[in-house]
Each structure stands twice: as C-alpha cells, then as structure tokens.
C-alpha cells in the first residue's frame, strides 16, 4: 500500500517537472494544498516528515536557498525536488548496513 502523502509529493513534483530531469522544486505547502485544499496547514507537518523520510532513503532532496540541507539539522523555509544520481548514492551510502542473514538458523 502506498502512502498518500508520498504519492502527493511525487505527483506535485511531476507537475512541476514533467520531463523528470530534476532541478525543479516545489514547496511543502504546495504538496499539503494538493492533499487538502482547505486546512492544508494541518497536513504540512506530515508532508515535511514524509519528505525527510524520503530524503534519508535517497528518493527526494530537501533544499534551503538552493542548497541541500543536512537531514539531521535544518529548520525554516525549504523546497523539495528530485535528487541527482550523486545525491541518491550519498544518501544510500549513509544508511546503516543491513544485517546479514545466517542461513544456518533460518
């Protein structure tokens, strides 16, 4: 099952950047308004949390004043965009390694 907020983020980005070449960004508020036109402010914290989760997975980039933010420490006005290949690789490299499964005990 897909997360509706995650889907709304990528739908809003697709409208802003139909060719998917990257570089075009959207505000988290635009995504919140896409989800709920009235009272979109209530959805905004969930949009930001989902965007942060996607950034840590390497599927989204959060920027502030055109520069990529540190996912562990940022505040203020941000924008969302699709990541470059280098940004995706860096995010995946930062993830903790997955534990190996020992076939003898399975």
Automatic annotation (TrEMBL):
UniProt superkingdom: Bacteria
One Pfam family of this chain: DUF3253
Lineage: Bacteria, Pseudomonadati, Pseudomonadota, Alphaproteobacteria, Caulobacterales
This protein's name: DUF3253 domain-containing protein
